[in-house]
Amino acid sequence: MVIRLLALLAAFVALALPLRAEEVLAGLSQNRVALTASFDGSEILVFGAIRREAPIDEDHGALNVIVTIEGPSAPVTVWRKARRAGIWVNTDHVRIRLAPSFYAVATSAPFDEAILPEADERYRVSVPRAIRALGAALEETPIFTEALIRIRERSGLYQLLEGAVEIERDTLFRTTITLPSNLTEGRYVTRILLTRGGEVIDRYETGIDVRKAGLERMLYQMAHRQPVLYGILAVLLATMLGWGASVAFRRF
Amino acid sequence: MQIYLPIAELSVNAFLILGLGGVVGMLSGMFGVGGGFLITPLLFFIGIPPAVAVATGVNQVVASSVSGVLAHLKRKTVDLRMGMVLLAGGLVGSVIGVWAFNRLSAMGQIDLVVELSYVLFLGVIGALMLRESLAAMRRARQPNAPRRRLHQHLWVHKLPLKMKFRASGLYISVIPPVLVGLAVGVMAAIMGVGGGFLMVPAMIYLLGMPTKVVVGTSLFQIIFVAAFTTVMHATANQSVDLILAFYLMLGGVIGAQLGTRLGLRLKAEQLRILLSFLVLAVAAKIGYDLLATPAELFDVRVEGRW
Predict the structure, then answer these.
(1) Which residues in chain B have their CB less than 8 angstroms from residue A37's CB?
(2) How many CB atoms lie within 10 A of CB A80?
């Protein structure tokens, strides 16, 4: 089905009327992720084509594709531990105004070749650029933001996938990005940037909706909207299981 | 089989949770303990956020206490009046505990306090259990060793507000049982335990209650305090994970029933020594994690999440 879509896109590219020198078109294998009981992470296939009306432009440097997926942002506190009276305790912290709950960047070349630093700053492409620290930053803030990136990279929430985008015949491209199981609900903004010589020449934006589904969604909503009822339900469940087990086992 | 936990917002192996509940349930069936003091730290070890582990652990305590109290009610080994007095203290303690939990959580210190309480309580309880069971084994070998006195007049019998507790055969002030209940309520809210390991010795040695009504009465009080604490955590923090609780309790109640039967056939003293080693091992592991230089000095907290 993906191959058919790619072929369709390629045909579209060939027939299309010229607008810009080079344009990017893309699709996703799914634009909805349901967090259900059996959710154990998900793989998103991002694919697309580059359409152009003129012969391939070789004079302005190499063509590259960058794909980013960004989860909903939230304020974050990063704590640092220090030894106090022999034990390790949280001693100081830095609040980061907004940090995406998930952020993946896939490129078709080493990152520095795929995009110039100025373009990175403008489009907030690299992982550190995607995090917005407080305006009046402390001297030590970078240590804390680095720690945030390190911790989230380890759990698969932040990913830098250099060379993970495959480009075929300068026209078709594809990449797979793995979403881990510990996702936050919300809209995951997906950007595809087309660069030539490190300058962004076109971009395309779409989104993936990540939602809890089924029983999980029901329980989560109830926990937040009717917490007292939810608590009573938890107690009832416990009472029933405790009572049920002793009744069921009495026969043996 | 992986299951997604909607409140903890991560996925875990269902069999790991069932097994964890089952093993702890079996131990609680064998020894008549609630098992909260093992479930909650074991949940920390597998990566459940402490707030969720504590709130869900206390929910699990409801199931195991209900399962246990039924047999005691039938045998009439529950002092309902004493249970009510303990409960009055327990409910107040639970409110204080949940409030303290939230304050500490906002200060970024809740993990530390929970872990320190576990090291302290598990360490002391484990050591006492080990000493007690070693002494019991020694007594078993020397049958004519001196026996303990059954009833002593303690300072608590001199306090005002006296009340008659017929089932326990006591006429004592209500102040000590209310305070015992209060302490247990605070522990339930902060540590996610029933607190039986604190209450049972307090009832015997401090209140002077006869041993036959102690376990039933403590279970009776624990049910209501744990139920109330579950509702409090659900309301204040939305941290009770029903899916996690379901698998834990399912494993737990089955394990407890098996444990009760198994416990009748096995030698209690040796088992008690094993349990005390297990309790000490959990305390040592938490203690070691506090003392050893952590691999990661930083910790990330998302506001409004765990």
Answers:
(1) 3-4, 243
(2) 16
